[in-house]
Amino acid sequence: xIRLADGWKDFEVLATGDxxxxxxxxxxxxxxxxxxxxxxAQRDLFSxxxxxxxxxxxEKGGGAWEYRRxxxxxxxxxxxxxxxxxxxMGFKHTGLFPEQAVNWDRVGxxxxxxxxxxxxxxxxxLFAYTGGATVAMRKAGAEVVHVDAxxxxxxxxxxxxxxxxxxxxxxxxVDDCTKFVRRELRRGNRYDGIVMDPPSYGRGPGxxxxxxxxxxxxxxxxxxxxxxxxxxxFLINSYTTGLQPTVLENILRLALAGRTGKTDAYEVGLPxxxxxALPCGAGGIYTDE
Length: 289
What we know:
Blueprint: E1 2-4, E2 11-17, E3 20-25, E4 28-33, E5 51-57, E6 63-67, E7 75-79, E8 82-86, H1 101-117, E9 122-126, H2 132-140, E10 143-148, H3 151-163, E11 170-174, H4 177-187, E12 193-196, E13 201-203, E14 209-211, H5 212-224, E15 233-238, H6 245-255, E16 262-271, E17 277-287
Parallel strand pairs: 1-16, 4-5, 9-10, 9-12, 10-11, 12-15
Antiparallel strand pairs: 2-3, 3-4, 5-6, 7-8, 13-14, 15-17, 16-17
Helix pairs in contact: 1-2, 5-6
């Protein structure tokens, strides 16, 4: 099953092919590589009218943006009542993964229903990047703890929260996620929801190494101990090539064995101008419903 983030107005995938995706981010048109796009383009993407910047990979690794015309350093786009800062960065990134709107909507609905009937749910966002999920969960009514090892990304998360009109209710932590979780367990803290977007490989601020195939299951098992008695959700998102949705579902089922909730797994994707779906990763979620 694939779940498409088809509720965007400020973003769209205009066309795909030959290892690239042509995107509209607000008023600006960008062309970026995508390893999933192994089919032929139906048109010449590099001559698309209005194309402003292309990210070209280098044979030596990495790559760089090639600007066809001047772009602002950054600009804003919105999704429903959320606003995010977009900025072309290294490694082809823009600071936002729009396909994650599928997960924002899912956990936002769970938080919203819970917040209507009781106290604000307390949720934890790990490997939280620029805070798309953080902003969505806070907007839905949760108190959020946002953790990422990269100080610059945490600062961007704060900017996105302010752009979305959020001034409180989010705690920002620059730290290695495993170390933070262990401290929270020692403190006796518990959460009603956990979201994580673990990298394939990573290094914490103290040099800590992360390799997803070795670390994910024990880390999820560790995090499961942070859940409250009746948690709303535990969501894992992954962009690791070859990591199937069923792997995430199996991890959740085993790590949360004995709990009475349900698990679900799916591909995450975006609709495209050709009328096909662009796969953008995998999701697995446990819900107490």
